[in-house]
Design goal:
By secondary structure, the protein is an all-alpha fold. Helix content is about 60%, strand content about 0%. The N and C termini lie far apart (about 115 Å).
């Protein structure tokens, strides 16, 4: 049998290239070294300036405060965040060691500190909260004067908001600042400021305000409670005892306990006096809940 000429052979189809198997390559996130994990104290990278969180005890007086005070507000409003943090520490030094020089410009200083609290950069936020603590320590009730009252209101709101957020180390610093505020200021006027926030729509702000308010009440005698409205305090506690957050409920129990101890201080039949008081001021169910707090 004659062989077929090779020129007439069918063309051989080219072999199809094999598919390359896909290999998953992990994508490395390029994080901005200035943006920190929200629950960690920020750590500076090798190219960044280091921000030191200096405790109040370790702050030293300024060598030439008279010259430094002239440019303090301008430096606090700098566009460079590291410069702002340094200036916030200078403001803390002024508050602790040169408060008389800071006083004439205290309102402006407080407003700039509040502005720094709103900054998304955690380092600046925390340093500004530390500055607020030292301002409370230095000036106390002076912050309630008409000249600084509005600035104080702004600072109080920001501290309550910062204490309510998820950045743990900022939250903890704000809690310390609120505690410093309660310790250094007269309870009655401070309580009047706080009571507006106990009914705040944000349940975390409400809880933080309730904690500070309960700390104020714990420092008050019966006469002071009556001046601010003892009935209002009991009603406030009765509302908070059913709040969604346990911190608010604990604060309510603390308020009720402080009121009970003040009202029954010189009474022999303490529970009876407390029961009669609650029943005369509250609806039956609320009165029962107040009685259970001191007689579980």
């Amino acid at each position: 049998m004659a062989l077929r000429p090779i020129d007439n052979a069918l063309p051989i189809a080219p072999e199809r290239p094999k598919k390359q198997s896909k290999i998953a390559v992990p994508i490395q996130k390029h994080l901005d070294p200035a943006v920190n994990d929200e629950n960690k104290v920020p750590l500076a990278s090798s190219g960044d300036a280091t921000i030191d969180y200096i405790s109040s005890d370790n702050l030293k007086p300024l060598s030439d405060p008279e010259a430094k005070i002239q440019n303090l507000i301008e430096e606090l409003d700098s566009k460079t965040w590291t410069k702002v943090c340094e200036s916030l520490n200078d403001a803390r030094r002024f508050a602790l060691y040169h408060s008389s020089l800071l006083l004439p410009n205290l309102e402006k200083i407080m407003l700039v500190v509040v502005k720094a609290m709103k900054n998304p950069r955690s380092a600046m936020c925390k340093t500004s909260i530390m500055a607020a603590s030292d301002i409370f320590k230095a000036f106390g009730d002076k912050l309630l004067d008409p000249s600084t009252s509005d600035a104080f209101d702004n600072m109080l709101l920001q501290l309550l908001l910062k204490a309510s957020q998820d950045k743990r180390f900022v939250c903890e610093e704000a809690d310390r600042a609120l505690n410093s505020m309660v310790v250094t200021m007269t309870p009655l006027p401070l309580l009047q400021k706080l009571r507006a926030y106990v009914s705040h729509a944000n349940l975390r702000v409400r809880a933080k305000a309730a904690i500070s308010l309960s700390n104020c009440v714990s420092r008050m005698e019966l006469e002071q409670m009556e001046q601010c409205g003892l009935t209002d305090l009991i009603k406030m506690a009765a509302d908070l005892v059913n709040d969604r957050l346990p911190e608010a409920r604990d604060a309510a129990r603390s308020i009720a306990t402080s009121a009970y101890e003040a009202i029954t201080k010189d009474e022999e039949q303490k529970l009876e006096v407390w029961q009669n008081f609650c029943q005369s001021k509250l609806p039956p169910l609320h009165a029962l809940s107040m009685l259970k707090i001191v007689n579980p």
